[in-house]
Amino acid sequence: MGRGGSGVRAVSDSSIEITFMFRGVRCRERVALKPTATKLKKAQQHKAAIEHAIAQGTFDYSITFPGSPRAAKFAPETSQETVGGYLTRWLETKKKHISSSTFEGYRKIVELRLVPALGYHLVLDLKRKTIKDWLDKLQVGNKTLSNIQSCLRSALNDAVDEELLDTNPLTGWTYVRKEAPPKDDDVDPFTPEEQQAILVALAGQARNMVQFALWTGLRTSELVALDWGDVDWVRGEVMISRAMTQAAGGEAEVTKTAAGRRSVKLLRPALEALTAQKVHTFLADKEVFQNPRTLERWTGDQPIRKTMWHPAMKKAGVRYRRPYQTRHTYASMMLSAGEHPMWVAKQMGHSDWTMIARVYGRWMPSADAEAGGKAEMLWQPELSDSVSSIIK
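Above: the chain sequence. Below: its structure as tokens.
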């Protein structure tokens, strides 16, 4: 901070550095004064005058330090920009650079969460504590908290690039609750009896699609984006590379992650559903599954729920769960049968199986009394023989 913690110090034979806080930012500026005792005292008086002007709200950075690179950052038109104004402007610039679904997610977070809560703050005044105190009051789960912070972190990173901020207050920090509020719709797979009842309640294309979903674990957005050209009949696989969301406006988009672009093995029930579907849409050589009412590609999750899923669940007498539970059902069936978690993760489009273990761990078989025996026999056969002889 300088001599005696005064915020004034000599930095060369011809200049003195003054340190002060302005709008939450530590500022260091040099003045062309030879660092004699008299000049250092004069610099301290100059610093005191700066701090008084800051306290009175009359400090003008560009007038006091006209040659400073930092002066542009604190110009009135930029220093007075609110978080709400900046986020609105930022959102518009992001529109052409991100997918429709990502933009729609950002838009909802900005307009419904960030602007109402933080919009009146000046960008320069936004502090981590302010954000943390607000997040702490939200009655949402950790997933939503993560999405909010991801959006805000991206926006503030761009604010740093624009030199509106020195540092991003969210850098190196993420707010997470130890115990997230319970989710309205947790993992709740269909039993074999419920699956059969649902399929019996359906017919034609609707039945084929649900059976295919139950035995591939595809997301609804991936299911409706599927084309016949994605099916590899020789290998018995289907290639997943696109997804269709409401935000995309009826257009399929490339999946967000590399892991999401994958080959899914066609198990026998899935292959049977696909074969049965051929009679309906195969000759058109476009979408695999259609809305039976319009004979066009499904446009997303909402029409499926309204025109097909709700009536089928009611007719089957099955407790209602959303269509996405077909994906959870697939995971639980595979793991309960003893399939390797990493294989299940790859089938479902996850980069590793940590999420599989966390979400579906209760369906993974526990080790039995013979666990480890195969490893002993393979790697230490001599030891196994000697133990056998002792037992005999």
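The first strand starts at residue 8 and ends at 10.
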